[in-house]
Design goal:
globular; about 60 residues; about 30% helix; alpha+beta; single chain; two-stranded antiparallel ribbon
Length: about 60
């Protein structure tokens, strides 16, 4: 996907996900997008490294 389209796609994802759901997208061990839920904010910022032991880290290492 062209890098110019990535912010637009991420914006669309954020608009269709229900308020009660958090969304984190990572690439290369770093977060590129995060939308907190209405009740939980993990304070993830684009560029933050995926922390070892986190749910994202486990999903990436298990490839699931």
């Amino acid at each position: 996907m062209e890098k110019t389209l990535v912010p637009e796609v991420l914006q669309m994802i954020g608009e269709v996900i229900p308020d009660g759901v958090s969304v984190a997208i990572s690439e290369g061990g770093r977060y590129i997008y995060y939308q907190p839920s209405a009740s939980i904010d993990l304070k993830i910022k684009p560029g933050d490294q995926v922390r070892e032991g986190s749910a994202t880290y486990r999903a990436l290492t298990a490839r699931q």
